[in-house]
Design goal:
Chain lengths: 107, 107
DNA sequence: CTTTATTATCGTAATATTGCAATATTACGA
DNA sequence: TCGTAATATTGCAATATTACGATAATAAAG
């Protein structure tokens, strides 16, 4: 086994799980936090800042990017990564609407 | 490898990742949603409702419970699970405060 | 006491994730 | 062109997660 049976669940539920997975690793949370805190843009700084290998950081950036949360563009050799704030707020809204609908009805 | 290097990150960041991991599987999202929607309490209903084996559902319940999100008590043979709404709102606040602090500063 | 219903736990197989070294790839500067 | 810097990709090795059958534990019913 080991395969998540996504086909069992509704799109809405699967989406929430997919978005949550982006935040489910501390490196990715740290990356998002760092990107958001910097005045200018970042790139390889994340490697020295966070302390994981360049390959690993790049991999995490891909995961975050696949969720639509990043905008990256090359400026010469360096790539400037920054937050896609529209997408970020969209995801935040979806998660929050789930939170709001979830209440305590028993016990 | 395969081990998340938690010791690299701050407690705050690790906490966010840990909480997010609870929501990072559709079965757990579905369980929380279902528990919240039911008038009374549930138990083995989740198995027939969601369509995963009893062992699997029980495992997911443990994960959700370990995050402090469930209150469960036996009523005879049946165990009534329900949401620990205080804890739920606490986690919601922690996640939201991260979201709020995250903004777009470049590009 | 025996059976049945309900939930938890154990063991295991399959798959996913994490992390890194090595290796591309791409762009700039000398 | 050549070397260097920055990032991406590939190919593992180690560990984690997911799922389920089998089994244990517990309590009610008969």
């Amino acid at each position: 086994m080991g395969v998540t049976k996504r086909f069992i669940f509704t799109d809405q539920i699967n989406d929430i799980a997919t978005f949550a997975k982006v935040f489910a690793h501390p490196a990715r949370v740290a990356i998002l936090k760092y990107i958001s805190e910097q005045e200018g843009c970042i790139c390889n700084d994340l490697v020295s800042e966070i302390g994981l290998s360049q390959a690993t950081i790049s991999q995490h950036l891909t995961v975050i990017g696949d969720a639509g949360l990043l905008q990256g563009r090359f400026e010469g050799k360096k790539k400037c990564y920054c937050l896609n704030i529209t997408r970020f707020e969209e995801i935040q809204m979806i998660l929050n609407s789930f939170f709001k609908k979830t209440t305590n009805n028993c016990c």
